[in-house]
Amino acid sequence: MQRTRGIVRYPGGMLKRDYTTQYCSMAATLEIIGERWTILIVRDVFLGIRRFDDLQRSLGVARNILQTRLERLVEHGILRKKAYQEHPVRYEYRLTSKGADLWPVLMSLLQWGDRYAIDGERPVIVEHRGCGGELDDRRRCVLCGADVSVTEALAVRTGARRAPSGATVPA
Amino acid sequence: MQRTRGIVRYPGGMLKRDYTTQYCSMAATLEIIGERWTILIVRDVFLGIRRFDDLQRSLGVARNILQTRLERLVEHGILRKKAYQEHPVRYEYRLTSKGADLWPVLMSLLQWGDRYAIDGERPVIVEHRGCGGELDDRRRCVLCGADVSVTEALAVRTGARRAPSGATVPA
Question: Is residue B41 part of a domain?
């Protein structure tokens, strides 16, 4: 292994002109989930929004873009399609375990954004289900100290929203 | 607060046609760091690559794109410029505390990618400095159990790299 002053240096030749040519787990992840809208689609599925029309309404994204992104997420095994109606057949999108394992990515984006990216009250608080404690930056319950898993977490809307002026309106 | 079957639902009107109109901490974070290359620039600065030419060589990104992304990161207070030479003045880029707080985002992307996005041996392992234990998905040392902070973490290159064929070559 090559160490340089306690940190690692990539030889220049390793990182090329495109993500796909970088042998880096972070770059490889961004190749899959880094496209515009993709993470917000995954967020919505985490929040229980599973059907095409509901996702489209929630996100306000163009239908063709949503369709492309959903297909790619299914192709990558992050979402799976499940029929919820037979005649005509209609599908909803569920997280696979690979998809559910994106929860730490979503939580870290949420928590950084709560602190630095939004101007006003947090729109969503994530709690330890049943216990009610908030989650710290290691997804531990601040009340009982438990390591909280995705199925034990509860996203609670505070009611805070951005006013048309850009200022926020508490609930 | 509004709860629906244990999960929260966004009213359709809250999420609009563009990230900037969504009052969501995740979307707000992506507005800042979601642009192509931005996270990989932040990754490189974490790894100690701080100067424009070194970043350009490491990433292989076009100079004008790199310049734009760096300016935006400085504007958002994620990086700061520090002169390392006077005649002529030359700057390097350092993480602010706001930037260093992106570490959990990078770690979650890295760990998901290690598991699901790369095909082959992990190119980088993050260890607890001094102790040598790896970090779990809550950034705790698997050897001593400590909560590891960014300054206590050490990125170690394994030497694994992708062969021209796409197969990986262990060190």
Answer: yes
Give the residue, B6 or A152, on which the prediction is more confident: A152
pTM of the model: 0.85
Q: Measured between CB atoms, does A89 come within 8 Å of chain B? A: no
| B8 belongs to a structural domain | no
Q: How far apart are CA B53 and CA B63, in angstroms?
A: 9
Neighbours of B143 (CB within 10 A): 12
| B110 lies in the same domain as B89 | no
Element (H, E) at A82: strand A79-85
Q: Which domain holds residue B28?
A: 15-99
CATH number at residue B32: 1.10.10.10
Closest CA to A3 of B126, B25, B152: B126
Residue B147 in 3-state DSSP?
A: strand
Contact A9 B61 (CB under 8 A): no
pLDDT in tens, B23-60: 899 999 999 999 889 999 999 999 999 999 999 999 99
CA separation for the pair A133, A141 (Å, rounded): 5
Query: Which among A54, A36, A35, A34 has a CA at the least distance from the CA of A44?
Result: A54
A149 touching B, CB under 8 A?
no
Q: Which residues of B touch A122 (CB under 8 A)?
A: 25
Task: Among A10-14, A64-68, B121-125, name the one with the lowest average pLDDT.
Answer: A10-14
Tell me whether residues A57 and B28 touch, CB distance under 8 A.
Answer: no
Give the count of domains, chain A: 3
Lowest mean pLDDT across B16-25, B71-80, B92-101, B122-131: B16-25
